Amino acid sequence: MATIAATLCLTSATLAALPASATTGPVARTPAGDGYTAQIRRTEYGIPHILAKDFGGLGYGYGYAFAQDNVCELADHVTTLRGERSRFFGPDGDSGEGANLASDTYYAGQRRAGTVRQLLDRKAPLGPTAELRRMVEGYAAGYNRYLRDTGADHLPDPRCKGKPWVRPVTPLDLWSIVYDVNRLSGAVPLAPDIGDAKPPSADGTAPAAGARGARASSGVARRGPVADIGSNGWALGRDVTRTGHAMVLANPHLPWADGNFRFYQVQLTIPGALDVSGAGLYGTPLVEIGHNRDLAWTHTASDALHASLYALKLTPGDPTGYVVDGRTERMRRRTVPVTVRDGDGRLSTVERTLYTSRFGPVLSSGWTTRTAYAIRDANAGNLRSMNAWLAMGKARNLTRLRTAQDTFQGVPWTYTLAADSGGRTYFTDSSVVPHLTDAQLERCTLPGGDEAPTALDGSTSACAWGSDADALVPGIYGPSHQPRLSRTDYVANSNNGPRYANPAARLTGFPGTYDTDPRLGRRAQLGLRMIAERVGGRDGLGAPGFTLGTLGKSMTGNRVLSAETGRDDVVGMCRTHPRLTATDGTETDVRPACAALARWDTRADTGSRGAALWGTFYDHLLGAGPPDTWLRVPYDPAQPLTTPRGINGDDVRVRHALADAVQDFAARGLPVDVELGAVQKWAGVPLPGCTGEQGCFDVVEAGPGSGTGTPGAGAFGTSFVMAVELTSDGPRTRTVLTYGQSANPASPHYSDQTRLFSRKRWVTERFTEAEIEGDPAVRTTTLHR
Length: 785
Known about the structure:
The chain is α+β, with helices and mostly antiparallel strands. Helix content is 28%, strand content 22%. The chain is built from 21 helices and 32 strands. The strands form six sheets. Strands 1-32-2-3-6-7-8-9-17-18-21 form an eleven-stranded mixed beta sheet, covered by helices on one side.
């Protein structure tokens, strides 16, 4: 254990005076660097606090610290974005035959076209600011410094130790990561489908599917992979907290094992210029969810459309020609060479072709002699997101945050929920949304079917995107059309549309493309119910109003709304019918299961007995048909906060579902009252939570082998949790990064915070200089030219 030897003054002069290498604590000394100065102080759970005198040094320290924890993840991601997976791993991948080749075709084509380079050539606000350019350059240099100091053959992570694909990165690689993140709701999930696109053969048959995504045609017209990403966000104002201080709860839900979606926790400080703490996605150089001294914010995935699928009417006899306004246009072709490794390790080059229309890249899925589909992504020209997040990190109040978002218009696909030390809250969808009017959506949308996705009519320019006078770039809505709400009580979102950010002040009057589903999901209903009950003191947590403590307890309460409103219906049914028939016709004794559900507290805690059974039962129900057909009270638009509810025990599908669940448990050798934490784990650590469809606020989906390297045993859900109170003396913050700072299974920070999460415990954030120095085990590394 080491302590700081002397107080570190937060001044540029102090940093400039540091020797070429200075460390305190049990950290190896580092040799001279690459023209940057930074200090990395790690507090409990390996959380780095980066201190520098300029943005280049800040990026340098950040890149070095991140590489210490996650060198393999960044190296792997860069290999993908350079279009080199086939070179190192062969043409096939985890997602199917030819998956790597299809992905490489897309990314190599993008690199060959110079897409990201062209965006970098733009001046701010369209291109990155000078501060950000310097920060990204420093980040690349810091990562490379760690790699050079350590050596690829001596990396601590066995997954990439000595691997040839672990190489130095460039600023272009990092900007490519940013560009990829920005298009997660559009083209990125379709990369294999775009890379695999081929015209149909002369006889009209479609080419082999290869790796193209079956979900591509059906899902992208809505929100791409963002449809599968969840989050909860609350901003609580002075009217609903017992202290009168504003608070923010951040609870994003993301895949745990996917390095492209994981969060990394960090504090970034340049004295007098920036002091922000929170988390950012791997490989991005900033805090994207976090707080400074006076402002806190979080994001949830927006329900808006961020890309459009267009149906192209093809020219008869020519599957690469399409008709717009009665005239034929030709698809543009780009030949892309891809290097491929065969089973014997030999390298060869294959040439692939990408096809593009005026509406964007053409997809393999659905390409016939009559029709093809193209994807137009509103974030296709967006590197502005980092500008927005840096400006948000500097903002000291909600007015400045709003100015930051309006200036750069770069938040790619999320809502923003924020609060400031004045006790105010703010909700907005400032994301990049295509300018499609309600009339266009009504007139231009072609209905989908078994063989065709829902898409816009690409045969007429009248269905193309319009523009706003206040939009920074053509084709998108400007700030004047964005849904916004300012309150002194609260705003909240759980991936529902904007209208219920606060039910007492429903948002209306915005374009329909911002709200693709007016109904509230069960998780969103539960979140609003939790706030109302806490404000009224009806949740068993004490006097009315939020404190930082009750905010944390609300988050970790693990309530299950479907059980609160339907468990008694199911218990009544199975008590009346102790033997039920399963879907396969087998008669099943459900009395033990019925008793287990009756005893269950309707919570999804690790020790809850009945939660696992309920989850399996409910999954069977969801697979049996639309919920409105087997619920006791169906959805009523006049009661959006309380319907649907209950479960109709007279419905044969409900009875089948319980019998099927009992059979599932028997087949797995599990007692029906098994503790949830026995079957839901990460790296052997029991996990609370359940799915959003069940009505869990704390969403967690995992199997017993998740986080142990078992193929296919991933996990999803609550990732970086932040509860912050903005007091007059500065922020008071508690966090937990559910999977820890490192994706390296050999790291002590792989699952250390998972154990906290399992026990409903938090990390008390160290934000101020005194708090950081107050950690008796702080470890300091100084990097200096």
